[in-house]
């Protein structure tokens, strides 16, 4: 089973940059999308249901903002839209599709980089999301949460870690939250399990400022985070950088 996750930075923009022909070549079973920046009325037939795939979406109420989606070759047995928390769900940040004993989640955690108000919201989402992650792992299902978590966990996960220790995305509290998720709660960072030592090769996002892409001044903020039994099935993980559909790169993982 191949699962791909990508923050599109706008589904219409990614479409214009060749995302769909590339996607069709990947033979992926499931593709998780974040930051659609679109409402249903903006979506073309291809965006709603690419050839060979079912499409599921959670749109933000605000136009041109956030939103997540899942494409899958198999029809989902059930789809859960949102977390049941109005302020989070209005931003279109959580979509779960169930296939037998497997749950696949497309997640877009908030960014706090625009200022204190959004950082406070990010911390609030993290605090309320943790109990949900704790209950998911206890259900006994295979679960993989794919998406843009907007946090780099360790120093190896971003180029300029020294200069970002007081910046959103690499704050001590954010990093400790992920450490707690991987330690106490027991979720697995699938890419890191397969590639424990990569640095420059691990990045999935590059700022549009300066020459971040050209100089590979990147961050690893996109993850596939799975329950232990499902994580153990992962055999390879790769980050695709030969073409650019977005300011993020697709993260692809193959599971046996």
UniProtKB/TrEMBL annotation:
Known PROSITE patterns for this protein? AP_NUCLEASE_F1_1 (PS00726), AP_NUCLEASE_F1_4 (PS51435)
Site-annotated residues for Important for catalytic activity: 222
**What residues does the record give for site: Transition state stabilizer?**
150
Which intervals hold domain Endonuclease/exonuclease/phosphatase? Answer: 5-248
| Catalytic residues of the enzyme | 108, 148 (proton donor/acceptor), 248 (proton acceptor)
Recorded hits in Pfam families, A to Z, give:
Exo_endo_phos
Residues of the site described as Interaction with DNA substrate: 248
Keyword Metal-binding annotated = yes
A GO MF label: DNA-(apurinic or apyrimidinic site) endonuclease activity
Sites binding Mg(2+) sit at 7, 35, 148, 150, 247-248
Transmembrane residues, as ranges?
A: none
Cofactor binding description: Probably binds two magnesium or manganese ions per subunit.
The answer to whether UniProt assigns keyword Ribonucleoprotein to this entry is: no
Listed cofactors? Mg(2+); Mn(2+)
Please provide the record's keywords in A-Z order: Hydrolase, Magnesium, Manganese, Metal-binding
Kindly list the biological process annotations in GO that this record carries: base-excision repair
Return the SUPFAM superfamilies for the record.
DNase I-like
Q: Which family does it belong to?
A: Belongs to the DNA repair enzymes AP/ExoA family.
Q: What is this protein called?
A: Exodeoxyribonuclease-3
Organism listed in the record:
Methylobacillus rhizosphaerae
